[in-house]
Fold these 4 entries.
Entry 1:
Amino acid sequence: MRRETGSWPGMLLIAGSAFAYSLSGYFTRLIEQDVWTVLFWRGVFGGLFIGAFVAWRQRSGLLDSVRALRGPGLLVTLLSALATICFINALRLAPVAEVMTIHAAIPFLTVVLASAFVGEKEGCTTWAACLVAMIGVAVMLDPGASGNRLAGYGFASAMALSYAAMMVIIRQNRHVSMLPAASLSAFLCATVVLPFASPFAVTTCGLASLAMFGVVQFGLGLLLMTLGTRLISATSSALIGSMENPLAPLWVWFAFNEKPTFNAWIGGGIVMLAVIGDVGLRSRRREPLLSA
């Protein structure tokens, strides 16, 4: 693991990324268009923003970076598009705090999938943290919830599994830049949902909000994370980046008075303690982080 050099620029970049990512629930509540139209324009604007950055960064090597994706990169593209579709649907159907509690458990789902499919070995403390996180999710869930809310849980679970599978693939192919895959996945998402969307039934104000959703929340969040992780240690990156999960419910609470339930507070707190505890213990043992 890299030594920490007190890189304030790196810390600020990761904090900015966490802030941008945490706006997912806010924009989902703010924008009144149907979920498929939201997904379409978010994919278009986000894909264009990331694609422009990749083209600027790679310049003459752009085609080579796309060709380098091959099978793993294409699979990441598919999984990312699926996760995005499930994530936005989950935010529309269930409270943001509850969706983000499931989202916070993604590193532990990654452990389970990596152990089952690629044979990665984890210590007892990490498995204990996995168990604690799952208990936190169980505490948060409301089995007596409405049909829409339960469907939101289902979409959130599918999103978490998709992201976890994506992380396993990325960890097995660290030598390949996945930024082109992120841009392609955004365009793929827009293409898949287009038959169900009404892209031209959007007002100018609505289009501006959708552009902000795609560019700021998705594109800028990914860009800042990519740049920041190169400047600070993986431990700092993981800890600062985890701020996304508690911040997301706060924005919708302040803006739309969507208060988290008592169970969401307790369950989300348990999951965050599991995440922070596991990151801290791995740092002391100099082990790779779940999110690396």
Entry 2:
Amino acid sequence: MPADQMGSVYRTSKGFGLRWYDEARTRRRKAGFSSRSAARAWLRDVEIPRMRGERIAPSSLTLAEFCSRYVGRYAADRSPATVKSLQWRLVRPLREFGDLQLTGLRPGEIAAWEASLPPRFRHDVVRALRMVLDAAVAWQHLTANPAKATGKNPSPPVVERAVLEPGDVDRLAFEMTHPYDVAIIVGAWCYLRPAELLALERGDVGDGVLKVRGTKTARSRRTVPLPLRASEALRALPPRLDCRLLFPSPQGGSYDACNWRRREFNWARDAAGLPGEITPYTLRHSGISWALHAGIPASDVARFGGTSVSMLETRYHHLLSTSAEAARAKLDVFSRLGQESATETGV
């Protein structure tokens, strides 16, 4: 094994990383440390004892106790809806392993438990558990993530979601009470998540743009174009001095997305004759589909939608192929115009 070493600490975009040589003289690296001293302390107290074959003092925390700490830190820069989603995904692993100490988790037992999960939930639930145990490794409660030794965690097949036509959105809006009829139009044409839609304030409406707040993470805050159809709908809202929100609850406060769906959206959907699978999230899905079908570049759609191009490629690949065809058509026109210009100049 290499002699005792201090390692080489370097800065990353999210903190600090560490480079060192392991017992096989292989160059290794690890990132995610909060400071240089934390990186060197991990090498001294965790990795070097491991390479020597020494036993590391086990953590006394159970999985349930550590999850509570992790969720508290996770909630510091995530929206309540995202935190609630993580907590829901951790219900199954906590039910199975919550009373076990972190060091008592065994890959074989986790693998058997994963196999018993319903296919519909397996990917998200296992991903949440792995994320928590990655944090346990980074926070020096574990030397390795036992959930990552169980094999791959493939994503489930993409389920094609329903897409509304603009006329369907208008019909749905007609059945909604005011001002939520305007919310339907804005949510679809600006492809907003339900929580983002209900968090909009009057000051967020600019000249041809809309500032989006209430996002899943602080990095998702963005400014999106305000199409003419949505702009016209917003102008129909009467001015109010008692509330900054565009779409407040009947009591004047912020409307919870689940309550809004149950109290306002569902009955209007049924009255409009739309299928029961239509949800407020369908508005965002439809808007993204319209934008891609219109030929807007996927990078712009991802930026305006507060998501990633890779997600678009996974869920909207059939529309991206249409976008590619539109791009080829535009290049063909450009090429033809260039040839005509060259012919006219005699080149």
Entry 3:
Amino acid sequence: MKQAVTEAALADIMSVPKTVVGRWREMGKVTPQADGKYDLAAHTHLPPVEAMLTSTWREDIEQPARDYSCVELFAGAGGMALGLEAAGFESECLYELDRDACNTLRRNRPYWNVYEGDVSDVDFTRHRGIDVVAGGFPCQAFSDAGKRMGFHDTRGTLFYEFARAIKEARPRVFVGENVRGLITHDKGRTLGTIKQVLTELGYALIEPEVLKGIFHRVPQKRERLFLIGVRNDLTGTFKWPSPCHRIFTLRDALHAGELYPTNCPKSFGVSYPPKRAAILKLIPPGGWWVDLPEELQRSYLGRSIDTAGGMTSTARRLSWDEPALTLVCSPSQKQTERCHPDETRPLTLREYARIQTFPDDWGFSGTVRSRYKQIGNAVPCNLAEAVGHSVIALLNSMEP
């Protein structure tokens, strides 16, 4: 299938700033069509583009050799759980503290075993023999970062609870998920401690990988760090998921097509305050605060304009022809605006959910604010499914 992408989307594929693609254009390294877009088929000399167009991701998908079970901590609204379910896993238990998120899980999957409460109260030995322990553990700073830290030195952090679940349940494989920023958090010491602890627990840690949602059927510029480990007494073959054959844009998310068979259902959404709406009305699709008249730039950003740097999330209007910006917990706060491409309003709840690749029949419980937060914090379902397929193949390779 032929696909032409905008200059900004090509920059996302290449993991470079848009200005770099602009320089490549001037040098003749990349050549746009008459409409300004770039035909990917004409740019296979770029390795990430070639990897997409020659990908065997569909052929790489394996069916489970048997029923594989998983336990998930910090399950939230179910993004990872849905992805793992789609890959072929059976959920043994989902652990979550937030009441609204637990109600979301129960509302959509009454047969799932949902534990509502603090994971520090759980004895995970009840899950001995489980195939996978998964979880997107929130990352707090470790107070003794920089010193030699073992398992017990991380006590008081939610990573400690994730590690304790692994220690007590002894799964064959674990899957940890976090923000990309964990790589550089505390100059890399936090991730170093995490890797050290997981190794000390008796697991061979596959080198952590940052996966970009755009390569895995997610119409969003979301990147997540994944940590996967295999118990030392087991051997298997692991391969990170191959990229999808194309990237999906906001248009793919909200209109009928390959991702969804229908246009996005109508749903409730928050509004901008009048002054903010007046500013955002002046922003073109794909634009941001730098597209405002100079006098309005200063009045909108105030003193922060002198130290603005990129501030690329401020006064942003999305583009139909590009993946959405990474969703946040609120689409209407200043500096986290996610404005609809045509209408001067934030994205609705259902639009938010589609960008995270939740199915349309997946409802969310709680206040409007809580529902936006649940969706914004979720692991995109399709990204979790891609990782899940890789873990299924790993477990299959361990079978006799």
Entry 4:
Amino acid sequence: MDERDFSILSQLRRDPFSSYEAMGRSIGLSGNAVKARIEAMKDARFLTSLRAVPAAQVFGRTPSLFFFKEPVALEELNASIEVDPVVFATVDVNRSAAALVYSNSPAPGPPEKLVSLLGPVASAVIPLFPYPRRQLSRPVSLAELRVLRALVEDLRVPLKEISESTGLSQKVVKKTRTRLLDQGLLQVQPVFQSARSSRILVFEVHVHSSDDSVLSRIRRTLPRSMFVNQWDKTAVVLSCWAESMAEVSETERRLRGEPGVSDVRVKFHARAILATARLLSWIDDQVLGLEGGTRA
């Protein structure tokens, strides 16, 4: 992986429906070259997948991200993704684990089965992205759910295939797909193992501050980074790249020196897993509910 690969990932996160040609124009590559680079990242198992993650509020649920105190083995992480209602789990090279949970409870704690697998919780936060409000401004429509399901299965699926599987016109599919992204009903999540990068170092940095303007400034101005998430309005999460561990350390040092920053944490992901089957099942339940209401 190199700087251009990271630029491609950044563009895919911002505009996952852009053509390979459009992505290539901004970094001086042909569309075929962009496609080849994405395939190479997948073949090297650096980028294991590019996924659409629906917002918890689509299902009337509350998102919580739990960080665990004890080192975790990959077998335990693999088992944790089977625990309902876990939707995403990661472990770093130092074996520290985190799990994203979409709970039916307004003030959720970690599921007991998850704690039995991964141990006691060190801390918990509420992710604010992709949807910053606790409730949607309006119900998700049947068309949005059908398009969302197709995107969860394959984020880059062609419009024609979504049209054929949903019965919606390509024009409606395109507008619905864009609306889902623009309104924060889904988040684009590159699932990658930063420990597998060979030419550059890809890492995640968590920057904490009680001042949202500080976080906004860092999000806009930190070079070699792309925005991932924000927690409780007190921390911003960025994916970054560097050419050496010295540069990683320099980035950490710079961030710690920023006025208003209270803490900085650097992480290297060794494994990340998305519970795609669970998300699809929840979407199917929502669709059945709306179809039943329509028939009634």
